[in-house]
Amino acid sequence: MPSRPAPGLSEEDTAWVEELTRSWLEVHKKSATTLVLLRLVRDHGPVSAAQLAPLVEDATGWGLSERGLYRSLRRLADAGALEISRADVARTGAKRQDFTLTAVGHHHLEGIERARLQ
């Protein structure tokens, strides 16, 4: 139950609106995350997941788990929208994965943005 009702709504209606919003986010967050990730990789790529995490949170206010972020990036890579390259990490010898938008990803993003505007 919310701490106080939204202006013009009863406590019950405010709770219902909050539930509708939570439900919508559960259903549509994956799609919205796809759009956000494609845009961020386009604008900042090549970019690592560690660099993307705070950018996603800044853009959406959503904190994605590391697992959820990697799962979304892998799904986009498997679909051909992102390319994964291995980059050396300074002073460690380790490799990190950097993500770049592919031509497929670029056109996919354009299609999403075009459809969103219609």
List keywords for this structure.
single chain, 118 residues, alpha+beta, Arc Repressor Mutant, subunit A, three-stranded antiparallel β-sheet, elongated
What do these coordinates show?
The chain has 118 residues and is α+β, with helices and mostly antiparallel strands. The protein has a single domain (11-117), classed as Winged helix-like DNA-binding domain superfamily/Winged helix DNA-binding domain (Arc Repressor Mutant, subunit A). The chain has helices spanning 11-44, 49-60, 66-78, 103-117, and strands at 47-48, 82-88, 95-101. Strands 1-3-2 form a three-stranded antiparallel beta sheet. Strand 2 and strand 3 (95-101) form a beta hairpin. The longest helix has 34 residues, at 11-44. The radius of gyration is 18 Å and the shape is elongated. The termini are far apart.
CATH topology: Arc Repressor Mutant, subunit A
Sheet/helix structural class: alpha+beta
Mean pLDDT: 87
Quaternary state of this entry equals single chain
Characterize the biggest β-sheet.
3 strands, antiparallel
Question: What would you report as the Rg, rounded to the nearest angstrom?
Answer: 18 Å
Give the SSE string. Answer: HEHHEEH
Strand order of the largest sheet: 1-3-2
CATH superfamily: Winged helix-like DNA-binding domain superfamily/Winged helix DNA-binding domain
Number of helices: 4
Helix residue percentage = 55-70%
The general outline is elongated
The poorly predicted ranges are none
Q: Calculate the terminal CA-CA distance, rounded to whole Å.
A: 37 Å
The CATH architecture designation is Orthogonal Bundle
Question: So what's the CATH class?
Answer: Mainly Alpha
